[in-house]
Amino acid sequence: MQDEQDRLAAAVAADPRYEALVARRSQLGWTLSAIIFIAFVGYLLLIAFHPALLAMPVGAGVTSLGIPLGLGLILLAIALTGVYVRQANRHHDAQMAAILRDHGA
Amino acid sequence: MRALIAALALLLPASAFAAALEGEAQRQPINWVAIAMFVAFVGLTLWITKAAAARTRTASDFYTAGGGITGFQNGLAMAGDYMSAASFLGISAQIFADGYDGLIYSTGFLVGWPILLFLMAERLRNLGRFTFADVASYRFAQPPVRSFAAVSTLLVVSFYLVAQMVGAGQLIKLLFGLPYAAAVVIVGGLMMLYVLFGGMRATTWVQIIKAVLLLGGASFMAVMVLAQAGFSLETLFARAVEVKTQAALATGVSADQALAQGRAIMAPGGFIKDPVSAISFGLALMLGTAGLPHILMRFFTVPDAKEARKSVLWATGWIGYFYILTFIIGFGAILLVGTNAAYLDGQGALRGGSNMAAIHLAHAIGGNAFLGFISAVAFATILAVVAGLTLSAASAVSHDLYATVLRHGQASSADELRVSRITTLALGALAVLLGLVFEKQNVAFMVSLAFALAASGNFPVLILSLLWSGCTTRGAAWGGTIGLLTAFVLTLLSPAVWTTTFALGDAPFPYSSAAIVSVPAGFLAIWLISLVDRSPRAAIDKAGYPAQRVRAETGIGAFTASDH
Fold first, then answer.
1. What does the pLDDT read at residue B7?
2. In a domain? residue B222
3. Is any Cβ of chain B less than 8 angstroms from the Cβ of A70?
4. Radius of gyration of chain A (CA)
5. Residues in A touching B549 (Cβ below 8 Å)
6. B124 in a domain, yes or no?
7. pLDDT band at residue B5, thresholds of 50, 70 and 90?
8. What span, in angstroms and rounded, lies between the C-alpha atoms of A48 and B17?
9. Binary contact (B556, A47; C-beta < 8 A)
């Protein structure tokens, strides 16, 4: 069982489709991480340096720009995890399964 | 004086978010409805524990519930593990007082979850079995990296646990009218029963039930609040601004000033005076979430990487939804609690202390019965969090230190199980003891310390061991330790500990969180030590990377429920 796993792992690692898939998946992971990281740090910087901007009303009422931005950040976090899971479910899993199958998994 | 005010301002981020854990907690009259509801919750969870105990025979049952939890269940349990009483009562109380600022905490607590998914969740599940140390030490010499991970787990869990125990004592004194010591002993005792007999299976169900109760109760409150405002956020905000303006007018300021004070709840206020502290605190929350041992451990309870992924999506969704609810609840409290003399003392402050906003709101909405329900939920919330913490610390001792380091992986499942149970007992006793010792202390810094430690030790070690082929045993073990130590020492030198807790005067490290220095320190130390490591072991570590990588990416050889 251990030998079989080692053989399979070595065969998959040598497959260029595997390298390409891992590169695509990891690029997606890093891109989405960068988006949420920059969005959050940018939000903190706005609070620190331009609080007046966040205090600006968005319409005729009292609701300030800070409200949609803050709530939007929460929704962005949920939406990005959704994007990642959808990509993985729709594409990555099937592609990985096909590679593993081709090498006798 | 000015220096003191500046120091207090710096403290705000760290102390205010743990506000539910401290402050004046006046003992309340005994609340029988709350106690009846809580007894019902305890009865249900103990019955579940009994059922789980019958199925907890092996170490794998104890640590991971046999690996058979679904992604949806695990997502709820993660949310139950993460949504603390401090975030429910503390954040809604802060919105009640200052408006907008509460939202800043909420976002900070949430943004770590996506990063956990994008960089770690699937790889963790593919490589690990019981603890995050399985993953961190995958291709390294076991004793050094395991020891680092176990020590780090114990540190993070201890600080988090003490803060929870002290908070529990105060909160229960407040809500149920029980003496502090009795409250701490009840929490410690119940947590021991859940973990000792029911292991991960019981802990998971306690967390799921708690999450459902908390989300249900908070949803009901938010809907009732929105109904008052005709389901318009603008109306809700406008009325809250009006209430705050009237309150300001009553203090005798001019109409313009009163309007400005009313409007202030729509904008960031006292939260951030100093950008460095803000970024540092944000980093600790974001990256610390991805390094909390009790959260990471939950990834091993699901059957495969796909379910691990789903768990994070559900957890992020529930936790984000919960923070939106707290935001509405906080504004609802301004409308319904802040204007009702029955909830205020003579000076216009909240009866029972500043963290009672959500509790009074529950009474305003649903009378005594709903107040009892929300109080019982707050108690259940604490139990779920402490049970998860204790389980992860017990696993670090029995699986990482005892079975792997001490017995070189030769311990039987029964031995491992026995050691985890002894550790659970010891930890429970220690938690109660520390809870009693720290009753009068300001422990607010402990939660932010736990996050800073996790962000500076566990997070860099996991990321670099998973993603950098050049990482070596020495780099991970020593570099991780340097990250931990930096976070620990700088926190001691920071205003929250140096000035507030020990009253030693101006703090040598002026920022409220260590993370902005300690997280880079952790990464840099691991990188540098690995780089100069020319030992024979370093060659083995680097050579082991390709095999680790293909397993992390594909799930070949991953532990499955049947292996358990």
1. 37
2. yes
3. yes
4. 22
5. 13, 22
6. yes
7. very low
8. 18
9. no
How confident is residue B512, by pLDDT bands cut at 50, 70 and 90? confident
Q: Is residue B274 included in any domain, yes or no?
A: yes
Look at B237 and A67 and tell me if their CB atoms are within 8 Å: yes
Distance separating alpha carbons of residues B527 and B522, to the nearest angstrom: 9
Non-local CB neighbours of B14 within 8 Å, separated by 6+ positions: B281, B444, B445, B448, B494, B496, B512, B513
Q: How many domains does chain B have?
A: 1
Looking at beta carbons, which residues of chain B come within 8 Å of A33?
114-115, 118-119
Which range is least confidently modeled, A36-45, B83-92, B139-148, B479-488? B83-92
- Could you read off the pLDDT of B193-248 as tens digits, one per residue? 999 999 999 999 999 999 999 999 999 999 999 999 999 999 999 999 999 999 99
Residues of A whose CB is below 8 A from B287: none
Q: In chain A, whose CA is at the least distance from the CA of B259?
A: A62
The 10s digit of each residue's pLDDT in B171-199 is 888 788 888 999 899 999 999 999 999 99
Crossing angle of the two packed helices B91-98 and B357-395, in degrees rounded to 10? 140
Please tell me what DSSP assigns to residue A57: B
Joined together, the tokens standing for residue B413 give 């499942």
Residue B316 C-alpha, separation from nearest chain A C-alpha, in angstroms? 6
Q: Which structural domain, as residue segments, surrounds residue B195? A: 2-128+156-440
Cβ-defined contact of B546 to A13 (cutoff 8 Å): yes
- Region B17-40: what's the mean pLDDT? 65
Helices (H), B131-251: 132-136, 142-176, 180-193, 199-228, 233-250
Q: Is the model's pLDDT at A73 over the cut of 90? A: yes
Residues of B in contact with A67 (CB under 8 A): 100, 103, 233, 237, 266
Two structure tokens written together for B196:
């000792």
Residue of B124, B150, B146 whose CA lies nearest to B135: B124
Q: Note whether B267 and A64 are within 8 A (CB).
A: yes
| Distance (Å) of CA B425 to CA B311, B420, B431 | 30, 9, 10
Output the domain CATH number for residue B99. 1.20.1730
In a domain, B277, yes or no: yes
Closest residue in A to B318 (Cα–Cα): A78
Residue of A nearest to B545 (CA): A13
Instruction: List CB contacts (< 8 A) between B278 and chain A.
Output: 44, 47-48
Contact state of B316 with A81 under an 8 Å Cβ cutoff = yes
How far apart, in whole angstroms, are the C-alpha atoms of residue A101 and residue A91? 16
Q: Searching chain A, which residue's CA lies closest to the CA of residue B275?
A: A48
In tens, the pLDDT along B346-396 reads 777 888 777 889 999 999 999 888 988 998 888 888 899 999 999 999 999
Residue A44 with chain B: CB contacts under 8 Å: 104, 272, 275, 278-279, 282
